[in-house]
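Recap for those who missed Tuesday's class. We walked through two folding examples back to back. For each one, the amino acid string is listed first and its predicted structure tokens come directly after. Nothing is annotated here on purpose, so try labeling regions yourself before you check the end of the notes.
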Amino acid sequence: MFLPLNADPAWVTGDGDSTVRELIRRENRKPERLDTPTSALSKIQSDEAMEMYLAEQGLSLDSVLERDRIVYLRKVANLSAGGVSIDATHTIHPDNIVLAQDIALHFRLTCLGVDVITETLAKSWKTGNFGILEINAAPGIFMHLNPAVGEGVDVPSHIIETFFDSGKSARIPIITFNRISVHDLQETIDHILLQHPDWTIGAVCRGGLFVNRSEKVLHKNYNLNVQSLLRNPKLDLLIAEYPANILEAEGMFYGGSNMVVLDNPGETEMMLIRESTDHDTVVVREGNSISLRRQGLIEQYTLGDDEPFTRVYLKEIGTVL
């Protein structure tokens, strides 16, 4: 779940009579401005950095601001420096959500905070004027519970549900191929998404790495690709290719598959079915001969002259999922 929060630097609004110093003192008397970890706002501290920033604006702490004029007191929007937290959950642009998800996938983090500087999160990062300041593997969550502006979001419950999804199996279905092209892999993803449009499918072959149809960066260490997909807490299905050269060089990252599909396998690739049980499905093609094991029963037949092998295993996927 993506939970965005805007933060604006501390500011004061003129009334035509009060100095900046008096406006800050009045702002600090607000009951929500407490110097505690759980308060929505912190007190605004007057220091040399603030005075320098005011001077850049032609002002000082003794300047009287005209009515309704807003003056920012700092360049930074840190909440500890008096910044204002604003819930932005319902305004976030989808491109920015995908960017955060890709960052989490790249760094193999289930929970993280991404600090950015931008005009607004409602615009895509692709339009420019968007910079990443920090990636935090242990982000604070109190500001989401009690933002200064907007509704609070119960972040802790979402985090706990992600790590501890009680009452459900901790293992997602896995389909393993010994040989599959990028084209056939994408066709398989599309076939499954037609039946399960809300699923998140992670898929990897020697030619590419995908989350649904979105292509990601393929790492040269093959098993790191598999590992990064399995670290995704929202993953509903893993599809992975394990040809002989990878099995011999790196081995497998996981054990057991709900479905194994072997296309003219060599001796090394036959190891993919050794851990399968009677509840798993195994499809093996040797030439035009098909051997299908399902629920402990074996079926054998011959492919038609123009019958693609994809038709065989796509038909069986529905019985597995």
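Example two. Treat it independently of the first, because the proteins are unrelated.
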Amino acid sequence: MSTTPPGAGWYPDASTPGQLRYWDGSRWTENVHRVAPSPEPAGAPDGPQRRRRTGLIATLISVGVVVVLGVVTTVAWGPVSALLFPKYTLAETSDYKRSVDYLRDTFSDRAESPLDYPGNDMSWRQSVAYTTAALQYIEEYIDEYGAEEMVFDSKSEADTYAYENTTWEFMDLTSRLRAGGIGTPLATQSFPLAPELVAIEEQIAAMPVEPGADGTYWDAGQAIADLVGAELTTDLSLNACFGLDRGAAYFCSMEPNWGQIFIDTAMEYVDQPRFVQTVKHEIAHKLMHTQCQGSWNSPYNGAAWTVEYGEGATNSYAVLFLGADREELSDRGEYAMSERTDAKAQAIHDGDLACFDDETPPPPIEN
């Protein structure tokens, strides 16, 4: 039987496995080339390639386990860490709370009504409008301080910071606000007399000056005193201030006498309209005191301007804002009125900075 030679082409080289040799149709030539290894069946990987793939899978699995464990550990560790190593905020410390209370209480006790007792300390700036503004500034300051956001690793660290920093900082701010807001925008802001008091002044100025059924002006004087919550009294034993000159009227700005105007029974002109003008002068003292914490001529109230202007500024105030008759008010000595006393009375009415000698707040108070 005859065999037909294979056609020309590349055939496995019998002498060298993995090699092909070219058959030209009649003989083997010298042309050879290597054959690439056949791909391994997908179902049965073997050898180094299989090992590399297996190693990669194992690595991915192990990393996945670590990541999962890390997540689980983080979730579980959070509460445990917070329990074992708690954080403390500045807001939780007793010194911080005490400092905040001290700062607020310094001004929150200020009378809510402009006619309530405002205090009697000229070293404080305590007009109604100013103290209201100071309280607002305090709340803004506390919010900006951000005590709830200041976190410490231990309670002792928080307490130490509160004592060494917050306590002294808040005490310093309290001192500066009491003295007029030094170092704050309030220091240069002047606050006018409370609108409620301005309305009362207008009522007083509009009231008629007429004698009562007894022929005196006592009732007329009492009627205007009622508008500022004051009672005319001849019981001089109640006076907590200085002694009265014979035949004089007196307003004592001490708290026990805040609602009283003292009249000496020896006063000779109760049956004259001049008596009402005198009452208006004493009421002017009270109204000026709500703005300045002292408007009488005394070296004890801490304001040199009261000595410089004397009772003249109070007379001017009564004339300008309470409708007092300038001609019927005493104009002797310290009671003398002038353009300067008028200007000072107007300035005090227009803004509380005029209560200070150079119309700027005094220096901070030493704690």
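Answers for example two:
The longest strand covers residues 28-34.
Residues 74 and 81 are 10 Å apart (CA to CA).
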